[in-house]
From TrEMBL:
This is Phosphoglycerate mutase. SMART domains: PGAM. It comes from Bifidobacterium mellis. GO terms for molecular function: phosphatase activity. Gene3D superfamilies: Phosphoglycerate mutase-like.
Amino acid sequence: MPATTIHFVRHGQVDNPDHILYERLPGFHLSDRGRAMVEATARFLAEAPGMRNLEAVYSSPLDRTRETTDILLEQINPARVRHGLKPLEPIYDRRLIEAGNEFRGKRIGHGQGAFWRPSNLRLILDLRRPSWGESYRQIARRVGDFVRQVVHNHPDAQVLAVSHESPIWSYRHLLETGHPEHNMLLRATALASVTSITLDCETGKLLGIAYADPAAGV
C-alpha cells in the first residue's frame, strides 16, 4: 500500500523580548535558544532512516520558518550527499503560513497586554472558536489542500513541512476528531516538534499520526 508521510515541523523559539504577537509580521527571527532547538530536531531527523527517502521540503514563507528550514537542511543535506542523494532546496508555500490574528503587532500577556483590555475580551470568550482572526476551519482547510497536493505530487515518499502551531494542530485535530475546533490552551505542538502524518496515496485515508519532541531538553 503506497503511503506518503508528511513530517510537520514547528519553528523554534522566536526572539521576542517585548512579547509582541508577531503573527505574520516580518523581522521576527529565531532566538539563540530557538536555533539550538531546531539543531536538536535537525539531528533527530537526519538520523531517522526515512529521511534518506525525503523527496521535498516545504516551508511557510515567514522569517522564523525560513530560518528553521535552513537549519534543518544544514543537517539533512550532508547526510543525503553521503548516501549519493542530491541536496534539497526549500519550497515556500503560503498555505503553511501562521494563522491570521486581529492582535498582530500588539503586546500580549498580563499588565498592559492586549488580551486583558475590556474592549478585546469579546474576542476571546470562546477559545475553541477564534473570533480574533482566521477560523480553525479555514486554517485546516488550507493545510488540507496542501496535504492533498503533496500526497499527489510525492506518492510513497517522505516530505518535510515547516509551519506554525495553529496550522499543524488544527489539521491534526481535524484528522483525529472530525472537526478542527479546539481549545488553544490544550495544543500538543511544542516548539521545534515533529508531527508526522501518514496517508494512503490512493484513498487519502489517514494511516497514522506520530509525534516527537526532540528539543524538549534544550
